[in-house]
Amino acid sequence: MSKVTKTIISIVVVAALGYAAFFVMNDSKTVNFKKEDSEFAVKDIESLTMIFLADKRGNRNKLVKQPNGKWQVNEDYYVAEHMMELLLRTLQQVQVKNPVPNAMHNMAVKNLGVVGIKVELYAGEHLKTFYVGGTTNDDLGTFFIMEGSETPFVCHIPGFDGFLTSRFEIKRANWIDRSYFTSPKSEIKSIMVKYGSGSDEDFTITADNGSFGVDNISNLDSSTLNKYLNYYSNTHFESYVNTEDRQQLQDSLEAEIPFCTIQMEHQDVKQSRLLKLYPFKSLDRMYGITEQGDLITAQYFNFNQLMVKKSFFEKAKPEL
Asked: What DSSP string runs through 37-60?
């Protein structure tokens, strides 16, 4: 075969590939759709009051905006602020890149059917529902489809090179703020700290018309007590335990008596806390089981300030 013939063949092949690529890229122009089928973004994110996320594996997260402006997940814990900010920013900035070309339609619909995350948005009343699927081959777009529509779209955020699926987090543990005790003392009704099955150093703190007292302590050091109560406004745990043997580990812990139990009764029962603490494999940490049945790890550095003895609140006796 002559060089001229090879050159001609090469030109024809390149031209054919170029035409095919052009056809696929521009095939989306032939897709007919309603404008509302492509309106995934929410311009006024402040108007949102609830976001519901669900997947095919049974994971469910209901994010609800509270009167104080904070968001709660599944009506128990507050949402981590950075997670909520990322989701809201995504809902505000997401744009349609193009309708999925006809040649890719079936693949995109199958993808959305298998890994799609259902997203329901409410602003007082139901606003819209759509599904977020996987990524395009170049990882620069994400499949979206509006509920009731037959037209999937490739969506993105201008200026961001990546896919958006992970921003619609479906694992509850990843939404929860690690702040466990977050109550100002004005909202606390009582605190009970118990060691093992009970000891002389157990204590109960009770609120009474805005003032606090420790049961069975007459020579109370009010300054020490107020400082102690303030620790319940900002104490964090370290992490959730999500290993494969989590349930087995939790069952074995629950068969034992916790070395410390901390119960905080809040004026709003949903914000009350009950934490049972158990030894960990290292000396600087401990396991905890919350009132929601979550298994966590906590550092002594953060929780030692709560695990004091009853005598801690007594005024020092003057030296004779």
From this structure: GG----S-GGG--EEEEE-TTS-E
Burial class (CB in 10 A: 0-12, 13-18, 19+), 105: middle
**C-alpha span between 192 and 291 (Å, rounded):** 14
Positive or negative CA dihedral for 146, 152, 153, 155? positive
Query: Which conformational region is residue 148 in: left (phi greater than 0), alpha (psi within -120 to 50 degrees), or beta?
Result: left
Within 94-144, where are the H helices? 105-115
Torsions phi, psi for 8 (to 5 deg)? -60, -45
* In the block, residue with structure tokens 């799609």: 116
> Tokens standing for 58?
């049974």
User: With contact defined as beta carbons under 8 Å apart, do 17 and 80 qualify?
Assistant: no
Task: Write out pLDDT tens, residues 190-229.
Answer: 999 999 999 999 999 999 988 999 999 989 999 999 999 9
**DSSP for 157-216, written as a single string:** -TT--S-SGGGS---HHHHB-SEEE---GGGEEEEEEEETT--TT-EEEEEETTEEEETT
pTM here is: 0.68
